[in-house]
């Protein structure tokens, strides 16, 4: 019997370019204590899940020092080599020129013995020239080192290998010559796609997977949280909602680098854990039962875009009559409010302070405009809030074009503190947040006090690019409400 479950491990990371000779040393360190989260996802009731998995995940004891595995790199076979139904659990030495694949073997055996599909992140060493790209130029040391996802079937068969394309401060890693679009099939939920960490912010390969109809995505990461817009769980849920997919995200835990936050997200639900500094170091087992999302109908065009309405979605199409938070859509346009400029996450936002008990505010950054209708349910006068807009190219620690509408709690009572990091809040509001976007790739999020997520009450998208997020009866104090638009086509301009 095949148990309908999938296990995600994020356990092997490396920060130095490993000398060639290390590949041939039989030095293997694979300690599950470095895990932050172990995710088990089931597509039917699975009462013996914890017992059968036989794996207990806990975070490393010393969170002040990175304990990433850097002493061993494995050779991970290309798809055409591992397509012959060979289980690494039963075939340790496959090719004479491959150094002992003990890490792969252990992962294979873990999947086989527990009858689980398993995905892990690990380093991969490939000789030059690459079999998948024989004409590509070799790195100076004559070999390739990739940040890699591997996927194993429940019988231990290696079924997928993905090399990360968008690197983030990874001097030890090489960028593959071309983006890899990697998927694998399961009998319980269809096709899964693979990508890693910083990939989530870029078109290739992430959006390409979605455009090809893949509705289940697997996302190991070492994510450095950055408030108020890009906390780990915040953007994980935002991507799931905006792309209309199920996202299985597993992060590592390192308090010094502000790394934590994993979850199982669908367009309708979120099961997640976000540790805070000082919280117990033990890892968290996340278990969720999720629906199988049908593949979206793919439009046959040069752009290969996804047809609207091709599957279930939390984002509905706005009608011609409009979508209003107020009683009448014929209300006059919002009055002008004094604006100010402040930096948020290294980008120059145009802000308006929210000083009234309720209001209807429009703020523009250049020609890009956002609108907020709000009413305070609970207003702590020791807290200051601002509503901001940004349109431009982010250029710090990465280059990507954005259009963003955001309501944020300021760090202090001075407007110069608006845009700084805040984790807690007491004030609650009902709101409608709207932006006139020049992109259909918009990722909505609501983050409340002490790192809790809330599902938007409704999301509506109009044909003219207007996206509206409505939410009421906020359970926690509002930290951020955001519409994060990605202008992928402008990244290189």
TrEMBL record:
Q: Which InterPro entries match?
A: Biotinidase/VNN, C-N_Hydrolase, C-N_Hydrolase_sf, Vanin_C
Listed SUPFAM superfamilies: Carbon-nitrogen hydrolase
Assigned EC number: 3.5.1.12
Query: What residue stretches are annotated with the CN hydrolase domain?
Result: 51-292
Give the molecular function GO annotations: biotinidase activity
Keywords for this entry? Hydrolase, Signal
Q: Which domain of life is it from?
A: Eukaryota
Catalysed conversion reaction: biocytin + H2O = biotin + L-lysine
Q: Does the keyword Hydrolase apply?
A: yes
Task: Report the top EC class in one word.
Answer: hydrolase
Tell me, what's a Pfam family for it?
Answer: Vanin_C
The leader peptide range reads 1-17
UniProt-listed PROSITE patterns:
CN_HYDROLASE (PS50263)
Family, per entry: Belongs to the carbon-nitrogen hydrolase superfamily. BTD/VNN family.
The record's function comment reads: Catalytic release of biotin from biocytin, the product of biotin-dependent carboxylases degradation.
Q: What is this protein called?
A: Biotinidase
Gene symbol here is: BTD
């Amino acid at each position: 019997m095949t148990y309908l479950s999938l296990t995600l491990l994020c356990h092997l990371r490396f920060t130095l370019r490993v000398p060639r000779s290390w590949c041939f040393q039989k030095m293997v360190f694979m300690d599950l204590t470095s895990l932050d989260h172990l995710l088990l996802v089931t597509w039917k009731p699975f009462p013996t899940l914890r017992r059968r998995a036989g794996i207990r995940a806990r975070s490393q004891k010393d969170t002040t020092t990175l304990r990433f595995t850097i002493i061993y790199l494995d050779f991970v076979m290309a798809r055409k080599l591992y397509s012959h139904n060979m289980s690494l659990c039963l075939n340790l030495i496959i090719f004479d020129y491959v150094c002992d694949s003990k890490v792969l073997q252990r992962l294979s055996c873990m999947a086989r013995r527990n009858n689980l599909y398993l995905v892990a992140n690990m380093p991969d060493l490939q000789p030059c020239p690459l079999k998948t790209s024989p004409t590509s130029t070799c790195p100076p040391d004559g070999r390739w080192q990739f940040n890699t996802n591997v996927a194993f079937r429940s019988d231990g068969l290696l079924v997928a290998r993905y090399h990360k394309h968008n690197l983030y401060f990874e001097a030890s890693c090489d960028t593959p010559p071309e983006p890899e679009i990697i998927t694998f099939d399961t009998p319980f939920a269809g096709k899964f796609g693979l990508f890693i960490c910083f990939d989530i912010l870029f078109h290739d390969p992430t959006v390409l997977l979605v455009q090809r109809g893949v509705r289940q995505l697997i996302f190991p990461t070492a994510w450095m949280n950055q408030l108020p817009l890009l906390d780990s769980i915040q953007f994980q849920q935002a991507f799931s909602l905006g792309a209309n997919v199920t996202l299985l995200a597993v992060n590592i835990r390192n308090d010094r680098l502000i790394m934590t936050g994993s979850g199982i997200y669908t367009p309708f639900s979120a099961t997640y854990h976000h540790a805070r500094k000082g919280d117990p170091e033990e890892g968290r087992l996340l278990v969720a039962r999720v629906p199988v999302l049908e593949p979206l109908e793919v439009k046959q065009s040069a752009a290969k875009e996804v047809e609207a309405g091709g599957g279930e979605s939390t984002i509905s199409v706005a009608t011609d009559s409009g979508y209003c938070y107020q009683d009448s859509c014929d209300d006059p346009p919002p009055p002008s409010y004094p604006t100010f400029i402040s930096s948020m996450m290294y980008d120059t936002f145009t802000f308006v302070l929210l000083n009234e008990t309720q209001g209807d505010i429009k703020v523009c950054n250049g020609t890009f405009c956002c609108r907020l209708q709000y009413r305070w349910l609970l207003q702590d006068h020791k807290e200051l809030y601002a509503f901001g807009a940004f349109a431009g190219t982010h250029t710090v620690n990465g280059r990507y074009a954005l259009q963003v509408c955001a309501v944020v709690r300021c760090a202090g009572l001075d407007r110069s503190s608006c845009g700084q990091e805040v984790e807690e809040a007491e004030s609650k509001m009902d709101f409608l947040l709207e932006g006139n976007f020049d992109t259909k790739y918009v990722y909505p999020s609501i983050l409340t006090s002490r790192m809790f997520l809330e599902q938007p009450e409704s999301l509506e998208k109009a044909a003219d690019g207007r996206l509206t997020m409505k939410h009421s009866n906020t359970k926690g104090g509002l930290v951020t409400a955001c519409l994060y638009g990605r202008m992928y086509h402008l990244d290189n301009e």
